[in-house]
Amino acid sequence: SLPAKEANLFKVIVKSYETKQYKKGLKAADSILKKFPEHGETLSMKGLTLNCMDRKSEAYELVRRGLKNDLKSHVCWHVYGLLYRSDREYREAIKCYRNALRIDPDNIEILRDLSLLQAQMRDLSGFVETRQQLLTLKPNHRMNWIGFAVSHHLSSNSSKAIEVLEAYEGTLEDDYPPENERYEHGEMLLYKISLLEECGMLDRALQEMHKMESKIVDKLSFREQMACILLKLGRFEEAEKIYRSLLFMNPDNYKYLIAVQKCLGLYSENGQYSADDVERLSALYNSLKKEYSWSSAVKRIPLDFLEGEKFLEAADNYVRPLLTKGVPSLFSDLSPLYEHPGKVTQAILVNSIFFFLFLVCATNHLREIVNLINRQTYWSNYFLS
C-alpha cells in the first residue's frame, strides 16, 4: 500500500482517466513512480492512460510489468482486461476479469464489465450468473433488476424475465416513481408488456397496459403497443382506430399503413390480391391520398398491388416529381417492383412518355424547360444506371 500522499495521487490518476485528462494522469503516475518505481497498480494505470493516447506498445509493456510486480492485485488484472477489451480481444479480457474477481469477488465495476463482454460473446449462462450476482450485491438499484431480466430474456426465458420484473415492482412503494424517474420506469413497464406479448399472454398484456397507462410517459410507444396487441387479439376496429390516429401524426410510416390494411383484412404476405381486394385497396389509398396528399408512402404502396393502366398512372404520379427533384434513393425504393416483369416494362414506358411530353412543351418556355429536361435526363440516367 502507498503512503497517504501517493495514495491521493493514485486517486488522481483514476479520476483523470475517467475524465479523459490523460496528461494530468501521467503526471500523477510519474510522481508516484519516482518514489515507488515498481508499484504494480501505478504502472498498470499509467499503461492504461498511454493506451488512450495511442501508445499501445508502451501501454502493454507497462501493464504486464505492473501485473508481474503485483499478481494479487485486482486492479492490475482489471486494467489488463480493459486493455484487451480496447483491442477487441474479448476472450482474453474475460480471462483477466475472472482473475480479478478471484481476488475481489464482489467488485461491482469488474462484474459489470464482465457481464457486458459475456453478452457480447453470447455466453448467456455466464451473463445470467453475473447479473444475478450484481443484483444480490446491489438489490436497491433498478438497473440491476432490469439487467437480470434482460439476461433471462436473451437466454430465451421470457417468463422468468417477467417474474424478475414483477419481483422488482413488488419492492416499490405505491407512489413510485418520483418525477425524475418517471420516464425510465415507464420504459421498464413497456418492456414488461412486450415480454408478456412475446409469451403470448395478450389479454394479460392488455390489462397491464390499462392498469399502468398513467405511469407510462412515452405515449407514442404506448399507443403503438396497444394497437399491436389489439390487432393480435382480433379486435380490428379498436386497433384500426388507434392506427388511424397514429397515421394522423405520421402518414409516411409504412408500418401504420400496413397495419390498417391488416385491420381491414386487406393484407397478403405474398403480395397476391384478388380483383375485389385490389379495388378495396385502391379505394382505401385514394381516400388516404385526399387526407394526406403530401405523404410519399401513401403514393408508393399502391404500386405494389396495382396492375395495367392504373399502375401506369400511379407510377407516373409517383416517379415524375422525384425524378424532377433528383432523389438518389428512387431506384432502391422501386427495386422490389423489378420482381414483376410487367411492371418494369410499364415503368420504363412511363419515363419515355413524360420525357417526350417535356420535349413537346419545349417550344413555349424553351430556357426553363431545357433546364428542367437536363435535370430530368440526368436523374433518369442515374435511375437507369
Automatic annotation (TrEMBL):
GO terms for cellular component: cytoplasm. Keywords: Membrane, Repeat, TPR repeat, Transmembrane, Transmembrane helix. SUPFAM superfamilies: TPR-like (SSF48452). It comes from the Eukaryota. InterPro entries: NatA_aux_su, TPR-like_helical_dom_sf, TPR_rpt. The keyword Membrane applies. SMART domains: TPR. The chain crosses the membrane at residues 347-366. TPR repeats lie at residues 74-107, 220-253. This is Uncharacterized protein. The lineage of its organism: Eukaryota, Viridiplantae, Streptophyta, Embryophyta, Tracheophyta.
